[in-house]
């Protein structure tokens, strides 16, 4: 009965979560588009740095921790979610302490005065948000989870509109649009799924410290790192390898790559939905349904991403020159590589949830790091944007997808997952 209720709560949530992620993407685009138009060069550098630091912490450390909390709570292992929260909080504290030193080295005094508190608010917000969304998503409340995404997006857009309406305060309003929306969403999320105090030890994370080791949390983080490298490392490597005369082409490639990667946003909803569903099925011993659910999630995410990528490709000859200001003249083979790699990486990300849900995080991390390594090794052999780049774009996620699916096929049909009680 309990499992059935959870499945009913999860059912249909994928569309809502996908829409919420699209809202986040739109709000970020609005913020970054408004920045250079409302701010001078110095303040925009500060805003850009604060946004970059917040994003690296959020998607590189906090988001994997959120997924881990979600996995464990979906498997009804509620106490074991305390340790990841404690470790995430420590990582956030260390990051905030380091900000003044980093800002002082990279920015002028006035710029650091804006960037440091802006990034600190974003990091603190992500610590709270990962905890809140992990608990809400792990409880199967995916529509509420999507609502938190929408709240963050709406708050950010309101602050940007405020900056447009009151230019004199644009520096702090746009700075607030980095972290304040995350904090607001987190606080609301904590009211939806409050942390329960049990013998005072649970709230301090002491009971959770006797649960599973840090290796699973590290695996979630490494999967996120591999994913980001496979999707977004190419412009950075090319910029490092190219000479000064080629930097204009690198800039055009960044815009083109960002355009084709938008379709990957649609896969985020499927990844969240599939992780929650599969974690519940695995902990309940429903292994046949687990494999069918994994297959259904991968196929659905792939189909949606293929359709979105095809639409992006059809509109690309018009949209990309508008975004870039002129025709970027990216070779067709590279455009094809961007499109295919987006589909492969999205399918691999959703397929990976099967390994994470079944506590095969180390295998998942291994495949993502292997794919990222191949991607980077091919990229460093070229300084031009052509066929070699296209090969690197496709090879990395293709290796990940093949490896993850092969590992998932070998999952046992009937064995209780080690270290996880079936109920709490």
Average pLDDT confidence is 80
Q: Which range does the strand content fall in?
A: under 5%
Structural class by secondary-structure content? mainly alpha
Terminal Cα separation, in Å? Answer: 15 Å
Low-confidence stretches: 1-11, 105-109, 197-213, 415-424
Order of helices and strands: HHHHHHHHHHHHHHH
Rg: 21 Å
Helix content: over 70%
Please work out how many helical segments DSSP would assign. 15
Count of distinct strands = 0
Largest beta-sheet characterization: none
Backbone shape: globular
Give a nutshell description of this structure.
The protein has 15 helices and no strands. It is an all-alpha fold and 424 residues long.
Give a written overview of the molecule.
It is a single chain. With 424 residues, this protein is an all-alpha fold. 81% of the residues lie in helices and 0% in strands. It has 15 helices and no strands. It starts with a helix and ends in a 15-residue tail after the last helix. The relative contact order is 0.12.
Which properties best describe this structure?
424 residues, mainly alpha, 15 helices, disordered N terminus, disordered C terminus
Walk me through the topology.
Blueprint: H1 2-10, H2 13-38, H3 41-74, H4 82-106, H5 109-138, H6 142-165, H7 170-192, H8 201-204, H9 215-241, H10 247-261, H11 265-283, H12 287-324, H13 332-357, H14 361-379, H15 387-409
Helix pairs in contact: 1-11, 2-6, 2-7, 2-11, 3-4, 3-5, 3-7, 3-9, 3-11, 4-5, 5-7, 6-7, 9-10, 9-13, 9-14, 9-15, 10-12, 10-13, 11-12, 11-13, 12-13, 13-15, 14-15
């Amino acid at each position: 009965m309990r499992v059935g209720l959870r499945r009913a709560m999860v059912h249909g949530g994928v569309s809502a979560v996908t829409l919420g992620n699209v809202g986040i993407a739109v709000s970020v685009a609005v913020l970054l588009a408004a920045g250079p138009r409302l701010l001078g060069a110095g303040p925009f550098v500060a805003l850009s740095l604060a946004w970059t630091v917040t994003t690296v912490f959020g998607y590189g450390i906090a988001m994997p921790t959120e997924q881990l909390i979600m996995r464990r709570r979906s498997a009804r292992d509620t106490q074991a979610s305390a340790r990841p929260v404690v470790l995430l909080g420590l990582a956030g504290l260390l990051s905030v302490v380091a900000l003044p030193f980093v800002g002082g080295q990279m920015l002028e005094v006035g710029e650091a005065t804006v960037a440091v508190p802006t990034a600190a608010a974003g990091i603190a917000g992500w610590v709270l948000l990962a905890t809140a969304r992990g608990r809400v998503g792990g409880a199967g409340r995916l529509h509420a989870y999507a609502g938190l995404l929408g709240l963050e997006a709406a708050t950010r857009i309101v602050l940007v509109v405020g900056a447009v309406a009151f230019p004199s305060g644009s520096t702090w309003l746009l700075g607030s649009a980095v972290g304040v929306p995350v904090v607001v969403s987190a606080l609301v999320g904590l009211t939806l799924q409050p942390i329960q105090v049990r013998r005072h030890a649970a709230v301090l994370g002491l009971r959770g410290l006797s649960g599973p080791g840090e290796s699973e949390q590290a695996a979630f983080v490494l999967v996120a790192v591999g994913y980001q490298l496979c999707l977004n490392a190419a412009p950075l490597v090319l910029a490092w390898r190219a000479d000064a005369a080629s930097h204009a082409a690198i800039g055009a490639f960044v815009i083109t790559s960002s355009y084709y990667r938008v379709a990957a946003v649609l896969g985020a909803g499927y990844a969240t939905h599939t992780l929650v569903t599969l974690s519940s099925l695995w902990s309940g011993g429903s292994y046949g349904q687990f494999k069918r659910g994994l297959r259904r999630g991968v196929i659905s995410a792939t189909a949606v991403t293929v359709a979105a990528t095809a639409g992006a490709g059809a509109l690309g000859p018009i949209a990309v020159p508008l975004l870039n200001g002129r025709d970027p003249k990216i070779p067709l083979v590279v455009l094809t590589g961007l499109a295919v790699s987006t589909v492969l990486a999205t399918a691999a990300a959703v397929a990976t949830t099967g390994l994470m849900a079944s506590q095969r995080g180390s295998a998942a991390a291994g495949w993502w790091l292997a794919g990222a390594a191949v991607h980077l090794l091919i990229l460093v052999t070229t300084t031009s944007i052509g066929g070699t780049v296209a090969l690197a774009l496709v090879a990395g996620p293709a290796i990940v997808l093949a490896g993850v699916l092969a590992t998932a096929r070998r999952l046992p049909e009937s064995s209780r997952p080690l270290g996880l009680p079936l109920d709490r």
